[in-house]
Each structure stands twice: as C-alpha cells, then as structure tokens.
Design brief:
Blueprint: H1 16-39, H2 44-50, H3 53-64, H4 70-102, H5 112-121, H6 135-152, H7 159-176, H8 189-204, H9 209-229, H10 244-264, H11 268-275, H12 277-291, H13 297-315, H14 319-325
Helix pairs in contact: 1-2, 1-3, 1-10, 1-11, 1-12, 1-13, 3-8, 3-10, 4-6, 6-8, 7-8, 9-10, 12-13
Length: about 325
C-alpha cells in the first residue's frame, strides 16, 4: 500500500510506467475486496477474501521496495507512514467523541485513561472504527525489519534469505498460537517480513510468466479445495494463519493471481483507487461502523469507498493536509 513511487526498467518485463499502473490496479482491486470483506462479515465470500487480501498488500509492498541505508529509510518511513498514522488516528478519535455525543451514544473509549492506553498501544487494543489501524504500524515495523536484514543480505535471491524467512514464519506462527495481544500490530511482523521478502524475490525474477502460471493453478485449486476442506481463513491481525503450510501458500498464490489480472488489464479506475488505497484503508471501517444502523449493505459499500475518495481529494488540496495526512513532502519553489 505504501511503497516506492518509481520502479526501474528491467524487472519482470515492461517499462516502469506500465508496471506502476498494474501495481496500482492490483492495490485498487485489493482495497475493494478489503471493503467488501468488512461489509459482509460472514459467509464464503468473506472467508475467501480473508484468505489472501492482506498478504496481497504485503507482497506488493515488498515488490516495490528495495534496500536503503537504515537512517535514510527510517526517516522516509516515519514521514510517509508514521505521521499520517498518528494524524488519522487522532482525527478519528476526535470525530468519534463528537459524532457519538451528537447521537446520544457513549464514545468508543470509556474515559481519557482508556483512550490514552488504547491509542498508544494500537493494534489489538483498538476496536470498532479503529480496528484496521493495526495494518500500517505492522507494515512500518516489518519494512524496517526487512530493510535491516537486507543490509547484510541485499540480494533477495540469496539462499540465506530462505533460512531467515523460514525461521521468521515458524516464530510468527508459534507466537500467534499463544497470544492475540498485538500492540502496534507487532505480533504479525515476523510473517509480514517473510511476505515482503517474497515480494522482493518476485521482483528479482527476469521473467515471471511461469511463476504466475503456477500461481494460477494453485489459486484455482485453493478456490475449489479450501471451502471443501474447511481450511480456516487467515486473520493476520491476531496471528491466526489458519493451516500455515496450506493457508500461507494459498494466500501467496491467490495474491499473485490478482496481480496477474491487474497486469493484464490495468484499468484506470482501479489505478486511481490504488493510489488512494491508504486513505480508504484508514477510513472505510469507520464509515461502515457509523452507517451500519442506517443503511443496507450495498449502500454502505458504496459509501465506504466514496467517502474516503472524497476525503483524499480534499486532503490533496492543501499543503498542510498533504504533508501530515498523506505523507507528502512539500516541493521547494523554483
């Protein structure tokens, strides 16, 4: 969802502009699926989307990033991810107090102490309109972790990455089975680092057609077999990886299928949604939370996409909001 804005010519075929378009299109398709899964919270469609929708974004983030010096990388991540995270979190907390007071309900936080604790801890301590806020800090720390490892292993094709990744996944699954306490989404970081590496490894392939064909076959098998075998869907937020040896492979395969579809048909409307995916990610759960008592699900789905889109457009209009909500750096005047 967040990543480098430029990709050099030569990886995976095609030129940089075309490749960026399909990445944005994949994000756009992915964010639509995320919203659908949060509107319809039960049933096969929800479980199917949950089986891969978050791994899709982590793979794309790994695909779009490359190792950088840690100091420079940390500064850029703080600016692009941490500052907007705090801005959206505090803004939504203030909105919740005002909106719930107006309709005669108690705000989501019991009191000031509860608000300070939950907003500081984030991750599993947030609920209701804030439940999606685990994603960005988890990605933030996972990207830092992956970049730190890449200082010693800059080539994603280095066999030692496979050893490190296997250890990370094993530890992530182990700790996820023992607790669902996840301040700032840290519980999920080990497995997310592995997904980031897989995205970087994918980018390093000179030709990925065979990989996508294999992913298509595995993805088709997953669509047909997972419901029949009653494989539980992933819930990365709480460290639940279903049947890890099956669920994670299926998640990667299905994510690659989505990317292949986006590459084949990079629709402009999906590209635009992809460019807005971070704001949609922050706000759609809140829209669903506050409108559920008043609208039917299809109208909620429409609103959960439209309101963040309009918000993104408004935030783009002012230098202050671009800097603190969108993580953009003001360009010096010439």
């Amino acid at each position: 969802m967040t990543g480098e804005s430029k990709v050099k010519r030569g990886d995976s075929g095609g030129d940089a502009s075309a490749r960026l378009e399909w990445v944005d299109a994949a994000k756009g398709l992915g964010i639509i699926l995320v919203v659908i899964a949060h509107v319809w919270t039960r049933g096969f469609v929800r479980d199917f989307i949950y089986s891969f929708h978050m791994p899709l974004f982590f793979l794309l983030s790994g695909y779009m990033s490359k190792p950088r010096p840690m100091g420079d990388f940390l500064f850029k991540q703080l600016r692009a991810m941490a500052v907007p995270y705090v801005a959206f979190l505090l803004s939504l907390a203030l909105f919740d107090v005002g909106f719930e007071t107006l309709r005669g309900h108690h705000p989501i936080f019991r009191d000031a102490g509860d608000a300070v604790w939950r907003l500081s801890m984030g991750g599993s301590e947030l609920r209701g309109p804030f439940t999606i806020f685990w994603f960005v800090p988890c990605l933030f720390f996972a990207r830092l972790g992956r970049n730190a490892i890449a200082q010693g292993l800059p080539d994603a094709r280095d066999w030692r990455w496979a050893v490190v990744t296997a250890a990370l996944v094993a530890f992530g699954v182990w700790i996820g089975q023992r607790t669902d306490f996840s301040p700032l989404g840290l519980l999920s970081v080990p497995v997310v680092i592995a997904l980031l590496w897989l995205g970087a490894l994918w980018r390093s392939l000179p030709r990925d057609g065979v990989l996508l064909m294999i992913a298509g076959v595995v993805g088709l098998i997953a669509v047909c077999a997972l419901p029949y075998w009653h494989v539980p869907p992933l819930n990365i937020k709480i460290g639940d990886y279903g049947w890890p040896s099956v669920s994670l492979i299926a998640a990667v395969a299905l994510s690659l299928c989505v990317c292949a579809a986006a590459r084949a048909v990079p629709l402009k409307c999906l590209c635009r949604l992809g460019q807005m995916s971070l704001v949609i990610m922050y706000l759609h759960v809140a829209v669903i939370h506050y409108l559920t008592p008043y609208l039917v699900k299809y109208m909620i789905l429409f609103a959960a996409l439209l309101i963040p889109i309009v918000t993104q457009i408004l935030l783009k209009k002012f230098a202050f909001t671009r800097r603190y909500y969108l993580g953009e750096v003001p360009q010096p005047e010439r």
